[in-house]
Amino acid sequence: MFLTRILVDKWCGKVAYIGALWVIWVVLVNRVNKMADALQSRTYYNSCYRHGVDEKRRVQIPAKWRPETDGTELTVIFWPKHQAGACLRVLPPEEMAKMKAGLDALPNSDTHKGVLKRFIGSKSVQVTLDKAGRICLPEEMAGAAGIKDEALLVGLLDRFEIWNPARYENVEAADAVLATKAFEIME
User: Long-range pairs for 144-150 at CB < 8 Å and ≥24 separation?
Assistant: First the structure.
């Protein structure tokens, strides 16, 4: 009887151990599959596209840059940060959420926090693509960025910018000067 109990305890222990390993394996496989799905469905904004802007200020978004889900809102922000002039920066929902979280993480004592939240909050709009794959640029934002009849969409991998093509030539020239030094961090 005693020997039987020891054998049963050892056998149950091994079964429990194998069961625990199986559960861990299933959880890991599910996590890896979710990460793989996220990587496959992620949109990368690369390359440059030159498109006309119609009289209603609509600009075509490249097919491979369009959100997979209809009705997804992109955030268009007036972006005055470049020395060559302003552009419009376009963020998909996950990047806008990261930007907001980054701003929220700044200490309230940082005077830049309020300035940035007010500026970005007041100089941004949510847009959705129409059935033809276009977004409508707000008149005031397009004018301030110098975008009239033509726009250059520039991929930034996780977001994109919309530039006045002539203004972007100056950006490219400035970037070319800095590129060699910038690429050193990639080594």
Answer: 144/78, 144/86, 145/78, 145/85, 145/86, 145/87, 145/88, 146/85, 146/86, 147/53, 147/57, 147/59, 147/88, 148/53, 149/52, 149/53, 150/50, 150/51, 150/52, 150/53
* CA distance readout (Å), 181 to 154, 160, 169, 185: 21, 23, 20, 8
What integer pLDDT is reported at residue 39 of this predicted model? Answer: 43
Pick left, alpha or beta for residue 71 (phi over 0 → left; psi -120 to 50 → alpha; otherwise beta). Answer: left
The greatest distance separating any two alpha carbons of the chain, rounded to the nearest whole angstrom, comes to 91
pTM: 0.76
Report which DSSP code applies to 50: E
What is the C-alpha separation between 90 and 128, in angstroms, rounded?
11
pLDDT tens-digit series, residues 140-169: 999 999 999 999 999 999 999 999 999 999
- Work out whether the CA dihedral 48, 123, 138, 134 comes out positive or negative: positive
DSSP state of 45: B
Length of the chain: 187
Rounded CA separation 127/116 (Å): 21
